[in-house]
Write a structure and sequence with these properties.
Elements (H helix, E strand, L loop, with lengths): L5 E4 L18 H14 L3 E4 L13 H13 L5 E4 L9 H11 L6 E5 L3 E2 L8 E2 L3 H13 L3 E6 L3 H11 L8 E6 L9 H10 L5 E6 L4 H10 L3 E4 L6 E3 L2 E2 L3 H14 L7 H8 L5
Amino acid sequence: MAKMIITAALTGGEPVHKGMTPYVPSSPEEIAEETYKCWEAGASIVHLHAKDPLTGKPASDPNPYFKKYAKMIRDRCDIIINMTTGGARPTTGEKLDEMVKERCGLGAEMMSLNMGTINLWTPPYENVFMNEIPRIKRWVGYMYDAGIKPELEFYDTGMINATKMLVRDGVLKEPLHVQFVMVGTTGWSPNPKALMYGVEQLNPSWTWSVCSLGRTQLPMGAFAMTLGGHVRVGFEDNIYIRHGELAKSNADLVKRIVTIAEALNIEVAKPDEARKMLGLPKS
C-alpha cells in the first residue's frame, strides 16, 4: 500500500476562534509554531487560513498574514504549504479575484479550490458558499501560472462531474489531487458508503484525501486509510481529542492519526515523499 499523506488544517475560517478553544493558534508566531509541531508529529501538508492575531477570527486583510506565515514556516521546516481560497472571504467580485491572484505569489505550493456552490453547512443555514464555474476557471489559471497545484474540494457528488468536465475541456490538468469534504447537513454525508461511492467515481490517476467534521473526523479518516486515501485532521474540522476534552494542539490530532496508521501498517509520507506523490517540485 502507498504511503499516506497527512494534512494539518490548523485554524479554519469563521467557525473556529479563541472563544471556542483557547488552543487554536491565531498569531503568526503561534501558527508557525503549531505548523512545526504538526510537521514533527508526521504531517506533510499544512492548510492555512489567515487569522486576526487577537481574536482568532478571520483576518480582514488576509494576504499579508499568508506571506508572513509562509516565510516563518519555511524558515523552520519543509512542510508543504497549502493556502485556502475559501472560508471567510473578506470581499467579492474583481477584488476577490485580485486577492486570490496575489495569494498565488505568497509562497504556497498548493491551494484549495472549491469545485462548486453549496449552501453553508453551519447554523443558521442562511448563506450560500459561491463557487461558480467561471470563477473556478479563472482561479485555476492563476494557480497554474504560478506553478501551484490545486487541491480540489468536493462537497457533493456533482462536483466530481464538474471536475471531469473541466478536465475534458482542458482547464484542469491530470493527475489531480482531490479532497472529499464531508460536512454532512447540506453536503457530503460522512459515512463509509458515501465515501466509497465518491472514490469509485474518480479517475484512476487522481490522488484523494478526506476531511470530516467533529466526531466523524477520526472514523472517516481511519476508513479512508483502508481504501488507500489520505487524511486531513486539525482544528479547522474538529477541536476535540476525545468526547468533551479539547485537544491542546493540532499536533495531538496528527499524532492520533499516525498511531492508527501504524496499527494498520500504513507508512506516513514525509514532505518530499508527498511532493513526489502529488507531482510537486521538490522544495
